[in-house]
Amino acid sequence: MKKLLMALVLITISSPFATWAMFKPIRVLAPSWVDDVSCVDEKICLDNKNNYQKAVILYESALKEVSKAVGPFESSPTVIFCSKESCFKAFGFNEASASTVGKSGIVVGPKGWRHHFIRHEMIHHRQAEVIGPMTMFFKPEWLIEGMAYSLSNDPRTPLSERWEKSRLKFDTWFSQVGEGKLWESAINL
Least C-beta-crowded within 10 Å: which of 79, 123, 128, 167? Predict the structure, then answer.
């Protein structure tokens, strides 16, 4: 019985450390714990403080435009701006330009420092707020990604076939439901 209790205590104590090591996106909860990342304010973290002004411009402009497009945020997202690939990888990301971790935060990689990428990820943050981070996995891809590509005003056209189809399907659906019923209709899909 004593060995079982000791094992349970050891598992309980080591679980947070194992999660931190193995599920890197969880690091958005404490970005300043990641090497070379500092949070300059409560919403913007960077791996290079010299990029702060550029990050502020991207952040504030995206926040304003996305709020107009999909409604005000319950909580403005924390965004980690990585100028180095090693920073982006420290949060568990490789391929994308930027990634959103539910309502916890957004990580922008070196290729993601563009207005439409930040807007796209902020739309995902807003989706997580309204639809729920876990429920989003059960919604159609065309809704989740199509909304983000369309309402972020992504200038790339056409996108790769998969994303372009999602954007077009969302645009057709959105024109039928209208702006006023966006979230109600999205939740009910």
Answer: 128
